[in-house]
From TrEMBL, chain A:
Segments forming domain CUE: 47-90
Xref: CDD domains: CUE_Cue1p_like (cd14424)
Organism this protein belongs to: Penicillium roqueforti (strain FM164)
InterPro entries (alphabetical): CUE
GO MF term set: ubiquitin binding
Subcellular location: Endomembrane system; Endoplasmic reticulum membrane
Region listing for Disordered, in residue ranges: 134-170
Protein name (record): Coupling of ubiquitin conjugation to ER degradation protein 1
Residue stretches spanning the membrane: 6-24
TrEMBL record, chain B:
Domain UBC core: 5-166
Catalysis: reaction(s): S-ubiquitinyl-[E1 ubiquitin-activating enzyme]-L-cysteine + [E2 ubiquitin-conjugating enzyme]-L-cysteine = [E1 ubiquitin-activating enzyme]-L-cysteine + S-ubiquitinyl-[E2 ubiquitin-conjugating enzyme]-L-cysteine
Gene3D superfamilies per the UniProt record, alphabetical: Ubiquitin Conjugating Enzyme (3.10.110.10)
Protein's GO biological process: ERAD pathway
The protein's name: Ubiquitin-conjugating enzyme E2 2
Annotated keywords: ATP-binding, Nucleotide-binding, Thioester bond, Transferase, Ubl conjugation pathway
Molecular function via GO: ATP binding; ubiquitin conjugating enzyme activity
Region annotation (Disordered) ranges: 147-167
SUPFAM superfamilies associated with the record: UBC-like
CDD domains: UBCc_UBE2G2
Top-rank taxon, per record: Eukaryota
Active site: C91
Enzyme class: transferase
Length: 187, 167
């Protein structure tokens, strides 16, 4: 009996030590993660819906999620985001895991439409979407070929981007011209 | 690793689509910095109410493309069609992974597989515009209108086409 007591005590002390180590570690981790969470939320609060709105109004073509991502990363500086857009660098697409910290589409938008900000910004015709109103009005575009030049591929990334954009614009403008002629013909 | 395979493949498809674009289709990444996010323009097929229209759509590719298919969503609204959800998302068999057929009407050969391509998707979507699949409507209202009140459906489509071109 007396022999057993110490031999029982040592393992149980060890067990206690191990258990308390894990318990402490768990507490520590939990604290850390919840601190991280609140830090995340704190940072999230930096993204002011008014700022997002402000930028979205200036650049309706931008994705709200991208705006929030950029604002969150630059600490909520509208100027920095604006600058970034204006210098043509564009906004990065946030990783899929990025959860916008502010509920931009407030409550009345169902979950199935998480992409609603995009959609909302998109509720416009192609002319305004691609900023083609100037080109659409100018008659000079009439002389442009109906079909955008094929087989154009540049080794230069910017050039490629430009060619693609031009093909896109031409396609829209050509369709618009055709449609206008058609409806004039009908009248 | 996997995503660089996807990137290479997407770049290759982008190049093919640029050098040899199919009639009525323009597609490419919005920015080459993100090859997983494309924008495409599709011309409305002739002799359909979509004729004369141009429709913009965004394509989002998964990291494991081409194992999994992209998603496609019309942007700017205005595609009133039985197989296009009211939010613009396209519902067509080629965009469904082979293993997953919730509707039990598609043949495996019609569904996505790595031998398909962006070009094939866009061409399929074009023919979908011309011939709606009535079996599994994504837009029930549009499907009903298409079935029961065809002239009204066609007029609505034509109006949306004009609106889309800013007219």
């Amino acid at each position: 009996m007396t022999d057993e007591e110490p031999s029982l005590n040592i393992p149980s002390l060890l067990t206690l030590a191990v258990v308390s180590y894990f318990v402490l570690r768990w507490f520590f981790n939990r604290d850390e993660s919840s601190a991280g969470g609140s830090r995340g939320r704190g940072r999230g609060n930096v993204v002011d819906p008014a700022q997002v709105e402000q930028i979205a109004q200036m650049f309706p073509q931008l994705n709200t999620r991208d705006i929030m991502w950029d604002l969150q990363r630059n600490g909520g500086s509208v100027a920095a985001t604006t600058e970034r857009v204006l210098t043509g660098r564009g906004l990065e697409t946030p990783p899929p895991s990025f959860q916008p910290p502010v509920a931009i589409p407030p409550t009345n938008i169902p979950l199935a439409q998480t992409a609603t900000p995009v959609q909302k910004a998109d509720a416009q015709d192609l002319i305004s979407r691609y900023n083609l109103s100037a080109k659409a009005e100018s008659p000079a575009t009439e002389s442009e070929p109906e079909k955008p030049s094929k087989s154009s591929w540049s080794q230069n990334k910017e050039e490629r981007q430009r060619i693609l954009q031009k093909r896109r614009d031409d396609m829209i403008l050509a369709a618009r011209r055709k449609m206008m002629q058609k409806s004039q013909g009908n009248v | 690793m996997a995503s660089s395979v996807a990137q290479k493949r997407l770049f290759h498809e982008y190049k093919n689509l640029s050098t040899n674009p199919p009639e009525g289709i323009t597609a490419g990444p919005i920015s080459e910095d993100d090859m997983f996010h494309w924008e495409a323009l599709i011309q409305g097929p002739e002799e359909t109410p979509f004729e004369g229209g141009v429709f913009a759509a965004e394509l989002k590719f998964p990291r494991d493309y081409p194992l999994s298919p992209p998603t496609m969503k019309f942007i700017g609204g205005g595609v009133w069609h039985p197989n296009v959800y009211p939010n613009g998302t396209v519902c067509i068999s080629i965009l469904h992974p082979p293993g997953d057929d919730p509707n039990h009407y598609e043949h495996a050969s019609e569904r996505w597989s790595p031998i398909q391509s962006v070009e094939k998707i866009l061409i399929s979507v074009m023919s979908m515009l011309a011939e709606p699949n009535d079996e599994s409507p994504a837009n029930v209202e549009a499907a009903k209108m298409w079935r029961e009140r065809r002239p009204e459906y066609e007029q609505k489509v034509r109006d949306e086409v004009k609106k889309g071109l800013g007219l």
